[in-house]
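thread from #wetlab-drylab

HS: before we spend reagent money on co-crystallization trials with magnesium ion, can we at least see a predicted complex? here's what I'd submit
DV: go for it
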Amino acid sequence: TTPVLELVDLVAGYRTRNGLLGKRAEVRAVAGVNLAVQAGETVCLVGESGCGKSTVARTVVNLLRPSSGEVRFDGTDIATLGKSELKAMRRQVQIVFQDPFASLNPRMTVRELITEAWRIHPGIVEPADWDTEVTALLNRVGLNPGHASRYPSQFSGGQRQRICIARALSVRPRLIVCDEAVSALDVSIQAQILTLLKRLQDELGVAYLFITHDLGVVRHFADKVAVMHLGTIIESGDTSRIFEGPAHPYTQALLSAAPTVDDWKAEHGEEIMLRGDVPSPSRPPSGCRFHTRCWKAQDRCRAEEPELVHRDTDHPVACHYAAPDRTLTRR
Ligand code: SF4
Ligand code: MG
């Protein structure tokens, strides 16, 4: 079936002034990404800050135009859409950011924040039904409908994120991009929000592109995981497969650092510490982009960029020396 979202050879970035001469250069924050999200599923894009995952998010919600490649919604390249089609597509793809305080206008009540979207997209809910619908939405996300006339500042961080989720749901999207949506929250609140998102998916069939730096968060949440490093996806597959046998050294390092994966630490003694700084996406290392930090690197890695190849079914890995580490399955 046609995925609700498909990224095809996506290249995107930003232009920057280089040095004193002010020569303009393009930084390819996203350097050729392929990814598909099926209706009603959760795909998690994981990587360190600066890996390009937020740039992916911005192209998906059409805040940034790709340099090349395609963002397909329901099989159609969104660059080919006319104005009204684009507006319809925008309604169906919503985004929830890390900081709900920054994305909620502090001068608007919860009711106004939600009904604003119905003003922008008429025809979804008739004004006569707004009150009923606001009540239903707030109930759905676990907020007291009696608080609809309160302002964002009168809620806790977790509650504010529930407001953002209610607002995203108000236009009945098919896909919600969650860009570090739980990263700023306490662990217990994170779990509550993830549980809520899961329930909403079961009830409404909405798909998530869930973007995070924390692999631990996604273990029981994502159907599929794609690991991103310096603008490219270096490993992807079903969540259980990635967690049971991560095959790329970078994924192994991320997993070993995930706070929830205690078994790994018991097995390995400690985290795999990556040496060196994250290279700049404007000047990625030659060959394998991970070679400056990889403890398995050989001469070949400096010269030859590994392709994303399937090692076994639906588990592509970009590493010349990929080897699944199965220590996590021994439990
Ligand atoms: Fe490490 Fe080489 Fe594999 Fe890159 S290709 S991840 S440098 S072993
Ligand atoms: Mg980011």
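DV: The mean pLDDT is 90.
HS: ok that's useful, forwarding to the group
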